[in-house]
Design goal:
alpha/beta, Glutaredoxin, about 425 residues, about 40% helix, 15 helices
Length: about 425
């Protein structure tokens, strides 16, 4: 009898330890950056992504790393990919937790050491705060049935960039989305509806993506100041009101009133026509009013280049189509774009003008050092904040203006997507 009790006790202890380790393992998630969707929406410059549920590791103003399965964490980092050079480590905090900076820094350092022990020389730490429950988020990603050779290729055209969602990492980052539609051009003050060209482009790219599960279509949007309100009206995700479960006359009357007023947004109508049940969107409000310059002459400016020589815009671009981009050292997409601008300048410089205006008013020596280290040769001018704000109405970086041979601004775009898109645009302008 005593022996049976001992065996039962050992069995219960084993179950308890197993459950504890399972809970601990849920305090991190590790995945390779392996698809085009990962590189476009998570990070283009690292090999591995890791996120840690930091709320579980801090209690009573003290670190409790025993809540993290450190062996499992390091093992996952070591085995996730053969390329273990660079890592994006996201330290996740859930509201309403308010952790002191000193304690967060200590935790960051300890986690960084664990990453280094797994073979990562370059660890970039990012902190994020959210109201979403960790366990729900983690379990949704873990439960997703990821194919052995999962691919999330890009399908793009002039208007959109579309990606199917097929990996656990993308489910973690994008929630319920089964397909991502990035609308390249910002929603601005000129956009009253989803244009026929945009609608046709969305249809084409989504069909090419061959999405199998069609529950939720997610739009990635940016906007100018005047376009913010239009985002809600064009991409409203609200579904029709639900029929009340009870036979209450009062509830039925409320339902009928709401149903009469309900009108699906153009984006929801389009998504359902494509076979999706719901939509959602992420919105990056860029501000500014760059769209007001389209059709007008590019405002002139005279700013110094890195070597101190002045550059007069109208003289510099006279008779040639041009790209004028506003950028800054602290802007990650700007730094991603810069080497490609140099490549395009060296390829097309004799017949197409490129001017990069530093709109952050960064220090001359800092910009010079950066340009030297990155081997940048395209024209860069300094102290452009006033030009950016007052003449070009830039609200986000990078913002790029396209100028035809007559000096007229024909279009603009915000952000950076790929060198190919830039080169295709340049080729089209040179062909006119």
């Amino acid at each position: 009898m005593t022996m049976n009790r001992i065996l039962i006790g050992i069995a219960l202890l084993t179950i308890f330890v197993s459950e504890t380790r399972a809970d601990e393992s849920q305090n991190y998630f590790v995945a390779p950056i392996s698809t085009e969707l990962h590189r476009a929406t998570v990070s283009f410059s690292v090999d591995t992504y890791a996120i840690v549920n930091c709320n579980a590791l801090i209690a009573d103003d003290a670190l409790h790393l025993s809540k993290l399965d450190t062996h499992g964490f390091v093992s996952a980092l070591s085995n996730v990919t053969a390329d273990r050079d660079s890592l994006l480590l996201v330290c996740r905090y859930q509201f309403p937790a308010n952790v002191e900076t000193e304690l967060r820094n200590r935790l960051n350092q300890r986690l960084k050491e664990l990453c280094a022990s797994a073979g990562y020389e370059n660890v970039r730490i990012s902190e994020t705060r959210t109201s979403a429950d960790w366990l729900d988020t983690f379990q949704r990603a873990e439960a997703f049935n990821q194919p052995a050779e999962a691919r999330e290729p890009l399908f793009e055209n002039e208007y959109v960039r579309v990606f199917p969602v097929r990996t656990q990492l993308s489910k973690l980052v994008h929630g319920e989305a089964d397909c991502i539609v990035e609308v390249v051009h910002p929603i601005d003050g000129r956009m009253e509806e989803i244009s026929p060209g945009l609608e046709a482009s969305i249809r084409q790219a989504v069909q090419q993506a061959q999405v199998i599960e069609k529950h939720t279509l997610k739009f990635k949007l940016s906007s100018t100041t005047a376009g913010r309100a239009r985002v809600e009206s064009l991409f409203d995700a609200r579904s029709p009101p639900e029929i009340p479960e009870t036979s209450s006359a009062a509830l039925q009357k409320v339902f009928e009133a709401r149903a009469a007023q309900y009108k699906p947004s153009p984006a929801l109508t389009l998504a359902r026509d494509l076979g999706f049940q719901n939509i959602t969107y992420s919105h990056s409000p860029g501000g500014g009013a760059p769209e007001t310059l389209v059709g007008a002459e590019a405002p002139n400016f005279n700013l110094d280049r890195l070597n101190g020589d002045p550059l007069d815009l109208h003289d510099f671009i006279k008779g040639r189509p041009a790209l004028i981009t506003f950028w800054g050292l602290a802007c990650a997409p700007c730094r991603q774009e810069a080497p490609h601008l140099t490549e395009l300048h060296e390829k097309y410089g004799g017949k197409f003008s490129i001017v990069a205006v530093n709109g952050y008013d960064d220090d001359r020596q800092d910009v010079t050092n950066y340009a030297t280290n990155e081997k940048l040769s395209h024209p860069i001018v300094l102290q452009g904040k006033i030009v950016s704000d007052d003449l070009y109405h830039v609200g986000a970086y990078p913002t790029t203006f396209w100028v035809d041979r007559n000096g007229t601004i024909t279009d603009y775009e915000i952000g950076f997507t790929s060198s190919k898109r830039l080169e295709d645009r340049i080729a089209n302008m040179l062909a006119r």
